Amino acid sequence: MDACNGYREFFLKPTSARQRRYELLRARFVEGLAIPQIAQRSGLTPMTVQSQIRDFKKALDQGSAPAFFVEPKPGPKADRKKSAVREHILRLRIRGYADTDIQEALRRAQMPVSVGLIDQVLREAGRSSLRKRSRHDRRRVRDEIRSGNIPGLTLPPPATAREPAVADVKDLDLQSDRTLYSRVAGLFLFTPWLVRVGLDRIVAAAGMVGTPMIPATSYVLSLLALKLLDKERKSHITDWNFDEALGLFAGLNVMPKTTATTDYSYRLVEGQHNLLLAEWVRAAYPILCPEAAHEFALDFHAIPHRGRSTGLENHYVPSRGQAVPSVLTCFARSVEPPMLCYTQADIVRSEQHAQPLKFVDYWKTLTGVAPDWLYFDSRTTTYPQLDTLRQRGVHFITIRRRGSRAVQQILSRPASAWTPTVIDTPQRRHQQVRYLDEAVKLPGYGGACRQVSVTRLGRASPTLFLTDHPDISGREVITRYIRRNTIENDLGINVNFFHLDCLASEVRLNVNVDVVLTVLANGCYRWLSRQLKGCERMAPKGLYRKFVETGGHVSITPKEIVVHLDRRSHNPILSQARLDQTRSPIPWLGGKLLRLTFA
Fold it and tell me: Quick one: how far is CA 381 from the chain centroid?
């Protein structure tokens, strides 16, 4: 009787989930018990019982009721890989393949396995250790894997990856009708300007070097394209090696490789980049600045070196708050009309003070006329250099360094000696200041220099302006020097968009070439902003995002090159500028005419 009770308990108290499900369904549909009674008997909640009944009805309606009671088998559903790859693993180990070599060979044979599985198979066969291989054996294994000729394995034919073509002007096809697509076809918006300014003649006059495969004009256009396309480094040209349309922009079949662009600066050992800058300014200045400029702002910018430097001097970098190894660069910008017109990066500390005079000689050589005014800060030059500027008839306004004794003497002057005035600044309209105008004696400066001390300019200490001009008012001295801030805005653009600081080289020649290209790219965007109505003050980053970074199709026809830009919301501004009306032959593209169209 006790044995029968034990058997009875097996059915009344099921332990398996499948059996429990069967008993509660039988109690419902055979015995006709209510859901609360079934829940009490099986030790489940009424909701669980109800869900089991619902799932059973659904499975029965779909004709899969028998599978509803099948107990699933744990473990993998598919065959294990070990048995399929065991023989291959052992055979390859006998041939001297390491674990990683075996993994790569099986992957090439479309049998991917882990290194752990390979090690497990080898340990089970007693072949976990690998004899020391000679260099010849390692090379043989490597060659077998690369060639796909692995004994005992049938490998599929290797996928042929498309290699970018080598930049070669002889491979540029301008005869057959074809259409290319580029996601930055807006770069061709600069082509009419480059043709108008005569870039090919500028490059030839500067004596820029080239090769039979990449002419000098194509070299310059390729490097300039990186600046115009917001690329940080020359090595990023690999992003465009497959874009034949950009190669067409540079007069090539494709853009050059990284090695060609990074090594180009070392070819210019005769200073051709300085001649390139001079020829560019001589050609572009009359177009961008139809009114002759007489006022120029100068400023220095230190490009910090990333990495271990062996031959660079320390210069103060404001972004780091300390002096670090860096390349010192000098920029000059015409105040009105605005245009970057000079740069130099091959500067050492002993030559820093001579930069204003070097710019004066540079500008007089280009235009035949020396600048009338120069604006620069206190660290640009020395007092003897200021005296030289005075003797040469070049007026200047600069800031004098504030010594504590000089500041105390100025602040001790009575209020009646100060002159109140109101100046207009870009951020602070009608700012009330007061100034003290007096003559001071400077060491190394012949005669007396005029000093204008100004308070309430946003600093606790007064600002000391120095000028040689005897007639202009103190208020005009202040407002003239405020114009110098425009070059600081341009330097910010050069850093943020043209990535002036993204240089890791300690070779000043390399940096010098890059800053020259920065001036050229700045001039290109200056021209484009003047062509587009309402965009005269737009920064290069905005112009790039709205106009240049536009995809489009580039079609080569027997007589012209047609660039059709994709539809974008700002295309009407391009149409309004009538850029599509320009029909200028492009010298570096076989004299073909360029036609721009907009969707």
Answer: 34
What is the DSSP-derived secondary structure letter of residue 317? Answer: E
DSSP track, 466-518? EE--SSS-HHHHHHHHHTTHHHHHHHHHHHHTS-TT------HHHHHHHHHHH
**pLDDT tens-digit series, residues 24-34:** 888 888 888 88
Give the whole-angstrom CA distance, residue 17 versus residue 21: 6
Say whether the peptide bond before residue 337 is cis (omega within 30 degrees of 0): yes
Cβ contact 212:219 at 8 Å: no
Single pTM value for the model: 0.70
Q: What is the H or E stretch that residue 323 is in? A: strand 322-334
**Are 541 and 300 in contact, with CB atoms under 8 Å apart?**
no
Closest-CA residue to 543 (of 590, 580, 503, 493): 493
CA neighbours within 13 Å on the CB side: how many for 501? 15
- Residue 322 pairs in a beta bridge with 317
pLDDT tens per residue, range 423-481: 876 655 678 889 999 998 989 898 889 999 998 877 778 989 999 998 899 899 988 88
B/e letters for 38-49, b = 16+ CB within 10 Å, e = fewer, are bbeebebeeeeb
Residue pointed to by tokens 């006329």: 369
